[in-house]
Specification:
Helix content: 25-40%
Distance between the termini: 27 Å
Strand content: 5-15%
Shape: globular
Number of domains: 1
CATH superfamily: NAD(P)-binding Rossmann-like Domain
Largest sheet: 8 strands, mixed
Number of strands: 8
Structural class: alpha/beta
Strand order of the largest sheet: 3-2-1-4-5-6-7-8
Length: 317
């Protein structure tokens, strides 16, 4: 099945230089509740800050609760909306189940932001799942399913899946997701997990939009954060040279802008199953593997999304 984009990509007044606060300027999210995973560092912090600044009650779902507590105190000190803290390890099923079981009431916004990148050696969870796929996709998949009733109760919920341009490096290799028959390559493993983030947005929207739940994926941009800690220091410079284009680094507040926009802006009301970059819907990529702009057709393909959904259910079983 080949995906074809038959309409013009959705445009907004914002761009690569916009910040998360600017994307939500003048928007009142009072009375809405949000969860941001991985909100103890990087763009997760700034996404949470922007949502709280617009009046939302924000739960920081983090593995490092000490770092999360510092972030929560910093955001709360600004006089923004209420900020809560909860522990969540997306590579651990018991942690995900406990988080979901403890949640009470409706949930309007779920930002699947946490992630790990380019682990130098192959690592697996206790269930035998490759760790990048487990954390970046499968854990968030289980989290969204566990919170499904809370999202449906909101009668207008949004899921935001933070993907990456790295999805252009690899589709989900369904024949060998776990690197059992092929050599492990850190960035290929990361790439297929980021493709899975986009396919999740497609799959969740097709299944849950009738319940008022939509999901979109995004590329935040090139941002120097702890996410790249396993890469050599000149990785971003080499990526610029290989791409043959200008790849400007964003600040974390600029990197969080697309997440904040998808999570809270009325411009995205009812929109789902799409992929955004620089605060606008991305066109289909034409440069193939190794490109730095656009979305791969295989990442928006409904057949691939359905196959990933079923495979994810099988892995969780």
């Amino acid at each position: 099945m080949v995906f074809e984009q038959t309409r013009a990509p959705l445009r907004t007044p914002f761009d690569s230089r916009s910040t998360a606060a600017e994307a939500l300027a003048g928007i009142d999210l009072s009375g809405k509740r949000a969860i941001v995973t991985g909100a103890s560092s990087g763009i997760g912090v700034e996404t949470a800050r922007a949502l709280a600044g617009a009046g939302a009650e924000v739960t920081l779902a983090v593995r490092d609760t000490r770092a999360g507590a510092r972030v929560a105190a910093d955001i709360a000190a600004s006089g923004a909306g209420e900020v809560r803290l909860a522990r969540l390890d997306l590579s651990n099923r018991a942690s995900i189940d406990a988080f979901c079981a403890a949640w009470r009431g409706a949930l309007q916004i779920l930002v699947n932001n946490a992630g790990i990148m380019a682990l130098p050696a192959l690592e697996r969870t206790a269930d035998g799942v490759e760790l990048q796929f487990a954390t970046n996709h499968l854990g968030h998949f289980a989290l969204a399913r566990g919170l499904h009733d809370a999202l449906a109760a909101a009668r207008g919920a949004r899921i935001v899946a933070v993907s990456s341009t790295a999805h252009l490096r690899s589709p989900v290799v369904f024949e060998d997701i776990q690197f059992l028959a092929r050599a492990y390559e850190p960035l290929l493993a990361y790439g297929q997990s980021k493709t899975a983030n986009v396919l999740f947005a497609v799959g969740a929207t097709s299944r849950w939009s009738s319940e008022g739940i939509v999901a979109n994926a995004l590329m935040p941009g090139a941002i120097a954060t702890r996410l790249q800690r396993h890469l050599d220091p000149d990785y971003l410079e080499r990526a610029r040279a290989q791409a043959g284009v200008t790849l400007e680094l964003k600040t974390p507040r600029q990197g969080a802008a697309t997440s904040a926009l998808l999570a809270g802006s009325p411009l995205l009301e009812g929109v789902g199953g799409r992929y955004f970059e620089d605060c606008n819907e991305a066109p289909l990529a034409t440069s193939g593997v190794g490109g730095v702009r656009g979305v791969a057709p295989y990442a928006l393909d409904q057949g691939n999304a359905d196959r990933l959904w079923e495979e994810s259910l099988r892995l969780l079983a």
